[in-house]
Amino acid sequence: MRLHRLDITAFGPFGGVQSVDFDALSAAGIFLLHGPTGAGKTSVLDAVCYALYGSVPGARQGGQGTHLRSDHAEPAIRTEVRLELTVAGRRLEVTRQPPWERPKKRGTGTTLDKAQTWLREYDAMRGTWKDLSRSHQEIGEEITQLLGMSREQFCQVVLLPQGDFARFLRADAESRGKLLGRLFDTQRFADVEKRLAERRRATEARVREGDTALLADAHRMQQAAGDAMELPELAPGDPGLAVAVLAAAAVARGTAREHLTIAHCRLTAAESAHTRAQDELAEARELARLQHRFTEAQDRAARLAERAGEFEETRARMERGRKAETVAPALELREEAENAHRRATLAEAGARRALPEEHADSGAPGLAVAARRAAEELGSLASARRAEHRLTELLAERAGLDREERADEDTAREADAWLDGWEAARTALQARIDAAREAASRAESLAARRDPARRRLDAARRRDRLTSDAAAAERQALDSGQRAQKLRGDWLDLREQRLTGIAAELAAHLTDGAPCAVCGATEHPAPARKDAGHVDREAEQHASDAHQEAEREHVEHERRSTELHAALDAVTAEAGETPADRIAAEVAELEREFEQARQDASALHAAHEELRRAEAEREQRLQARQRSAVRAAARLTRRDTLDREQATLQDELTRARGAAETVAARAAQLERLAAVLTEAADAARTAEEAAVRLKDADARLADAAYRAGFDTPRAAAGALLDPATHRALQHRLDERQSEESAVRAVLAEPETAAAAERAPADLLATEERAAEAERRLREAASARDEAARRTTELDRLSARAEDGARRLAPLREEYDRVARLAALAAGTSADNERRMRLESYVLAARLEQVAAAATARLRLMSAGRYTLVHSDDRSGRGRSGLGLHVVDAWTGRERDTATLSGGETFFASLALALGLADVVTDEAGGVRLDTLFIDEGFGSLDDQTLDEVLDVLDSLRERDRSVGIVSHVGDLRRRIHAQLEVVKDRTGSSLRPRGI
């Protein structure tokens, strides 16, 4: 990297425009940047850093860059820094403008302009500058990628702050680690440590989780074993936990199986005892049953003997009842005749009570004649009945006409009331129809606006997607352009190398006697030879192909970027700049209004239907009122006709009904009289016939009783048994015979008689012994089942524990391996003898390289006295790996760098800074640093040491470097001719070049 030119406007202490020509200052190799304290020497370096990275070093960065503006600047002048430099073979120009609070163009007050950044590249072939980007992020990434260094690394490598390196020499290992970590970007090694620690914690948590589950199974096994299992006194995560749990489980399973065997034996013994007790109980119960059976049979025989007389009486009564059954038909016949005579007599008396007085004493023939005369008179009233029926119909019709008249009057009143409100109802319905039509029109208008709004929303969403795609395509095109430019430079370099060695390539085809293609000579005494780095046609063609492929890729990326930007412009023209979420809200509001309008418009059909129904009802009510008027006129005519017919019928009925109120009443009187006379005649004939049948039944009954052996019919009737009594007496006789047979059978049983001769059975004692045996059997079975359940549960839990232990074994092995690696990387492992963290180990290697690079210059600055060495020794209780010592060749002793004097510390830190710059440069990919700045520290050197330091700095020119020394030491102004003086006054600082 080489700086060419720096332009500063309104930046820091510089109120106006200041320019620095680094090409002119660097021509001498070493130049001096000096000025009084506070003039702004460091601000020049800040401007370089700000141009490259958009920020300044250390605590001076803050407030988003607004504090960088010079207090001496005019309000209308904007702060700006422009830097022209060459890096990686490309000449670039970076321009940055921090945020600017400027006066408003209209009105009073100020407004804040955003920060601006430009990056341009010089095209040597065209002699013009080409714009690359105006994006802060893209420019920052491009500069960082080209330089290969972050801002912190740049400030340590290019802007060498001696004070920082003096502190670095005296710092402890932790502070050195922080600085070196920023410079060499060892965060990835710290991330490895963190990742290992996180993986160790995660694996440990999984191991603890598995051990916790294993301990939970162990506790369940202990509960299942009845606290006969001793758990290991280990916590989750402790080594050997799984082995201890499995061993305890094996012991518990063995104990449980022993208990199960003992329980089986006890159950077998209890079953045998229970069987014997049950047999004894069955035998005792059988003996007690037989003895009780014999005693009961004896008691039953005694009771039969006591009731022998009652049995004989029952048998005699049954015999008399069988004889009386032969008289039963005559008794039944006589009873039926008596009942019929009684009923006929009562019916005759009842019928005669209903007869008129003139017929009360008449016989059956006289009553029959009177009934015929009443029937004849009743037949003569048929015509009068028809007239009376017609009069009833006429009165009903007249009442119907009255009801119809009242109904027509009600209909007319209702129709008049409804028609009075017709105009108001029609107006309201028409208003609803008009509102629905208006809503339909509004819905059509909103529907026409909805599709464009949706298309605009889609365009806005495509615009947002295309914005990110276009930005990505633009970055991709920029990257491919840089790659194509680099490959083009590589191809041109190879082409130049090939042209340089083209003589050797041509000489390879020369043969003796054949003319040379260049000079035509046939003798070739000293043909050119290919050196080790010769580039042939194939290598050049390969580079050319790579360059052309990169160019095609760049053109494709540029084409895609152009297409995306064109598409973005198209959708932006359609969607505008309105955010998509706001357009979405507008579309949602439009949809809501459309749905509301469509819902309101949907009532149009219903309103039309309701109006149609109302008009139809109006027509119906008008027609009903007209029909009512027609019916009223017809009713007047009908009433006159009915009145004339009613008068004629009433005259006829008056003659026919006589003293009765109506013809029907007269007919009813005659019907009742005929019925009463007929009924009385029939009852008189029936009573006479019943008296004859009763007398005949009495004669037959007396004859049947005499033949059956009874003195009177009454005695025969008394001996007769009803079916229930007969069944009861027969049942008593059958029961006695059955009881006698059963008692004789029981007393004749041999086993029952033998049991009666034995001693009484002691059933209670036998049952107690059987119950005790059954209780012992249940206890033994329960104990056996509990032992079997415990054994099964322990087997299940043990199998699960063994399965868990098998699954946990690889995880524990992984945990042990990761824990060892994490402890080793963290420096806490016993295998890590120096307690060095992984990051510290890497930084120690870098520090060792820095010390070696710094020693080469320190030996020159100290006339061969001092050498910087890296030390792995631990400091106090801290960790080792970042120690830095100085070896004094005069004493041959190694001591800490903190023991150096002020001047020794300066040139030691300077040597360290230069060595660090070399190492960081190599670490950054070999980016060449052609411009360096050294800030302060020269005032602590004597003349001889100063000359030696300047000689070392002057030797940097051998690598085509230029070194800028920032100092206010007066002696340096006499020794260094190329100078840049910073002058300060009340209007701000200014820059004055001298000696160039």
Q: What labels describe this entry?
A:
elongated, 6-stranded antiparallel beta sheet, 6-stranded mixed beta sheet, 68% helix, 17 strands, 10% strand, alpha+beta, 996 residues
The chain-level structural class is alpha+beta
**What is the percent of helical residues?**
55-70%
Radius of gyration: 68 Å
**Spatial separation of the terminal alpha carbons:** 22 Å
Low-confidence stretches: none
Q: Strand content of the residues, in percent?
A: 5-15%
The tally of strands reads 17
**Biggest sheet: strand arrangement:** 2-1-4-5-8-9
Task: Characterize the overall form.
Answer: elongated
Total number of helical segments?
26
Average pLDDT rating: 77
Biggest sheet, open or closed, and with what strands and sense?
Answer: 6 strands, antiparallel
Report on the architecture of this protein.
This protein has 996 residues and is α+β, with helices and mostly antiparallel strands. It is built from 26 helices and 17 strands. The longest helix is centred in the middle third of the chain and has 79 residues, at 422-500.
List the helices and strands and how they pair.
Blueprint: E1 2-11, E2 14-21, H1 22-26, E3 30-34, H2 41-53, E4 80-87, E5 90-97, E6 100-103, E7 110-113, E8 116-123, E9 128-133, H3 136-147, H4 151-157, E10 159-161, H5 162-170, H6 173-184, H7 187-224, H8 241-306, H9 308-324, H10 328-353, H11 364-379, H12 382-420, H13 422-500, H14 502-507, H15 537-575, H16 580-601, H17 603-657, H18 663-707, H19 713-719, H20 723-747, H21 750-757, H22 763-826, H23 838-861, E11 866-871, E12 883-888, E13 893-896, H24 902-923, E14 931-935, H25 943-955, E15 962-966, H26 970-975, E16 979-983, E17 990-994
Parallel strand pairs: 3-15, 3-16, 10-14, 14-15
Antiparallel strand pairs: 1-2, 1-4, 4-5, 5-8, 6-7, 8-9, 11-12, 12-13, 16-17
